[in-house]
Amino acid sequence: MLTEKQEEIMEAIWCAAENKNFSIEGIKNECIVDISEADLLELEQNGLIVSSDDMILFTSSGKPIAEAIMRRHRLAEVLVYSILKLRDSAMEEVACKVEHRLLSEVEESICILLGHPEICPDGKPIPKGKCCKKRLRSVSNTVVSLTELKPSEKGKITYIKPGSHSNFHQLISFGLHPGVTVTVHRTGPAFCIKFENTELAIDKEIAKEIFVWKIEGKDDEK
User: Fold this and answer.
1) How confident is the model at residue 187 (pLDDT cuts 50, 70, 90)?
2) Contact status, residue 117 vs residue 107, Cβ threshold 8 Å
3) Percent of the chain with pLDDT over 70
4) How far apart are CA 76 and CA 99, in angstroms?
5) Do domains 4-59 and 65-134 have the same CATH topology?
6) CB under 8 Å to 151, separation ≥6 — which residues?
7) What values do phi and psi take at 178, rounded to 5?
8) Which pTM does this prediction carry?
């Protein structure tokens, strides 16, 4: 079992590596805790990292451990951003607390609940888990893509995948943001939705990027 500080260091090594930076200085810049030589030496003695010429790399046993840590952290970010609606520093602070306490089975349930998100709110990739590869959907009221709803079905927007920044900002300008309840009016020939006394036709590819918490029950509007 790693300590919370060790997990934070492993996260920092992972994040620095995503930016092709393997230097100790680069890792320290990514870390929210101070890193000492003793900290790195302990991780190295535990067989999780190797150091050479001011570079830090994961070992074959250390990389999957770091990947699991990053997965928990970024799932926690999606959770606090889309469900708790926290932003920026508040989101990061709560996500850090949540990730260190997530049991593997709880982590999987959260992932299923959120519809197997592929990226966190700041656009970084979320490592896939076993449930993602199997596309498990055993949790009731799972979060799904808007395109999975049928006409007259409703869902509350939990998050929008920013596949295109222009599309993302356009949807926000229309009033489509987390917390808004939408009703699918029709799926063809155009994909039309209703929300807050507004009817809007959107491209189906864009609709795929909108994830909602399905609400049971039919809408009475025709």
Assistant:
1) very high
2) no
3) 81
4) 6
5) yes
6) 184, 185, 186, 187
7) -50, 135
8) 0.59
Residue found by looking up tokens 């039309």 in the block: 192
Confidence (pLDDT) at 107: 81
Given pLDDT bands bounded at 50, 70 and 90, which one contains residue 37?
Answer: very high
**Structure token pair of residue 183:** 């009703």
Q: What is the average pLDDT across 79-107? A: 68
Q: Which residue, among 190, 106, 110, 112, has the nearest Cα to 151 in the 3D structure?
A: 190
CA distance 82 to 12: 24
| Candidates 2.30.30.90, 3.10.450.50, 1.10.10.10, 3.40.30.10; CATH matching 143-218 | 2.30.30.90
Q: Are 149 and 212 in contact (CB under 8 A)?
A: yes
Q: Identify the burial level of 181 via C-beta atoms within 10 angstroms of its C-beta, where 0-12 means exposed, 13-18 middle and 19 or more buried.
A: middle
**Predicted pLDDT at 71:** 93
Q: Which of 15-19, 111-115, 161-165 has the highest mean pLDDT?
A: 15-19
Look at residue 60 in the predicted model and tell me its pLDDT: 97
Q: Encoding tokens for residue 143?
A: 């979060």
Give 59's DSSP letter: -
Question: Among 1.10.3860, 3.40.50, 1.20.1260, 1.10.10, what is the CATH number of 4-59?
Answer: 1.10.10
CATH 1.10.10.10 fits 65-134, yes or no: yes
Question: Which among 168, 189, 188 has a CA at the least distance from the CA of 177?
Answer: 168
Residues in the chain, total: 222
Helix (H) or strand (E) holding 102, with range, is none
Residue ranges per structural domain of the chain: 4-59, 65-134, 143-218
